[in-house]
């Protein structure tokens, strides 16, 4: 039995399964990109001051700043769509969904930052945590509400079509089984 408001049917189960596979693939790619050791002659100190790295990027000029900030936003942005897809709820508070997804994105980004402390050539950057979380939130806001609305309309339409088909089948079966009125004999009384 499925929970009310969950994806139902084989097509939507495939969507959830595909979302799960894509989520695992994306997290594997993120781990490979962020946790492999770098062979560099020197390492910058960790950035523990919020927005200091973004200000430094902006001081380099707009093209380079846009590239660095865009990389930070894009790294975990697919999680904003994949996490709700894997969760599979259609009828959920948009704010609650956004908060859950943002928290999960922030925790994953924090986990990456903590693991990077032990990887040669990698340093902790609080701005990457902020940008990664902002990317998750932006992707969620851009795709998930419209996607859920579309899926709800599709499920409603499919349910109506299924109900119409079921009603037609019921009427057809009733017509085939019906043989007219049951005969009665009025002269026979009811036994005591």
UniProtKB/TrEMBL annotation:
InterPro entries, A to Z: Teicoplanin_resist-assoc, VanZ-like
Q: What is this protein called?
A: VanZ family protein
Annotated TM spans: 12-35, 65-86, 98-117, 129-151
| Record key words, sorted | Membrane, Transmembrane, Transmembrane helix
Superkingdom of origin organism: Bacteria
Residue ranges occupied by any VanZ-like domain in the UniProt entry = 24-142
Pfam families to which the protein is assigned, alphabetical: VanZ
Q: Does the keyword Ribonucleoprotein apply?
A: no
């Amino acid at each position: 039995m499925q929970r009310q408001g969950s994806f139902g049917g084989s097509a939507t189960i495939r969507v959830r399964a595909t979302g799960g596979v894509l989520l695992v693939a994306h997290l594997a790619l993120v781990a490979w990109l962020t946790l492999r050791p770098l062979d560099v002659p020197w390492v910058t100190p960790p950035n523990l001051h919020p927005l200091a790295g973004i200000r430094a990027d902006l001081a380099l000029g707009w093209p380079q700043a846009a590239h660095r900030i865009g990389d930070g936003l894009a790294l975990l942005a697919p999680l904003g769509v994949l996490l709700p897809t894997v969760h599979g709820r259609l009828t959920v508070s948009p704010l609650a969904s956004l908060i859950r997804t943002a928290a999960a994105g922030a925790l994953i980004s924090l986990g990456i930052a903590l693991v990077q402390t032990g990887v040669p050539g990698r340093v902790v950057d609080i701005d990457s945590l902020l940008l990664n979380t902002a990317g998750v939130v932006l992707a969620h806001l851009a795709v998930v509400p419209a996607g859920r609305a579309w899926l709800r309309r599709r499920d409603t339409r499919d349910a109506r079509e299924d109900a119409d088909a079921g009603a037609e089948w019921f009427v057809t079966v009733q017509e085939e089984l019906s043989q007219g009125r049951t005969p009665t004999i009025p002269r026979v009384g009811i036994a005591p």
